[in-house]
Amino acid sequence: MSDTHFIKGFRAALLLSLLFLVSAIQAQQGDVINIRQGSPDNYVVVEGDTLWDIAGVFLDEPWLWPEIWQLNPQISNPDLIYPGDNVVLYYVDGQPRITVERGAGSNAGRSDEIADTSLPVIALSPRVRREPLLSPIPAISLEAMSPYLSRNRVIDITALDNAPTVLGSRSDRKFSHENDVIFALGSWAEDINTYEIVRPTREINDPLTGDVIAVEAELVGSASILDIEDDAATLVVNSNLQEVRIGDSFVVSESLILSSQYFPVAPEFDVTAAVMDINFGRSFGGKYDTLIINLGAEDNIEAGHLLALQKANIEFPDPNAQTFLRLPDPNSTISFSGEIYGRILVYRVFDNHSFALVLSSDQPVALSDRVITP
Fold this sequence. Notes:
The chain is 7% helix and 35% strand. The chain is mostly beta strands. A hairpin with a 6-residue loop joins strand 9 and strand 10.
């Protein structure tokens, strides 16, 4: 090999520096981050992959991927991985390392890498270059999740007191649909033209205190104001998931925005929450069901937080505890921690409660279960 080729190869190798660093980070339980048994030495990213998928190829616990992430200063967008990139696992002094090698097609149209200024400059005439544009892979498949995300609204217990309600329709029908003109009366928000139409279904209680903390409402559709005078408004139904009925309520539209680039990550603080509801009314649930937990924005919970499901503690009478009459003391028990059996992803946050999607579950989810930091 000539000196020129060697120098070029050496400089190219510098561009393949570390993107991720897998170090002996101690998890909360005192365990190091473990490489999955049978993990391959490398993995080529393909269309449809997510960071979550790739993390699961190399790690026993994919949610620990952000902890081993280390940016590569030689790449403009080191936190983005493209189809065609090669993710390589190797070891240095017994410690695992992960690097990413840019694939031949993943650099098309991008200038992520540092240019090799020693190479000769060749002037080219302008010409059209037709190549497929590659997008970075998402952290988690929102397209796969979206069919399972709840369309229900959880509304503050006082929010519906003065909310406008449907009085009827121009067609004089009891049920209205898309493009129908409807009439409503109530207190309207200033400078808001489009509203969600909801139908209250039931109250939601905090399982620990029994207090009513919110009202669950089905999302019926949306409508826009055509004309308004005082509290009376004429609206047109923009869309409907079900028939709009007399008595349905209007609330300010709520946008559900989930970035395609966020990665599920555990909170940096201890969480102890309760499952308040499962899929809006069920006693048991499983994978891809929506849970309502009794923590929200006021507790620093954020969309994208990954939490663990844990069964309730198991208690037994303490055989060594006795009353003054030397009888077994029924009030003295020995408690054993419940099994951690699943993961949930918070995707919608309110002040005091949140919606979360069950990503994995080895057992049925029950209302008595706890939600904790993994």
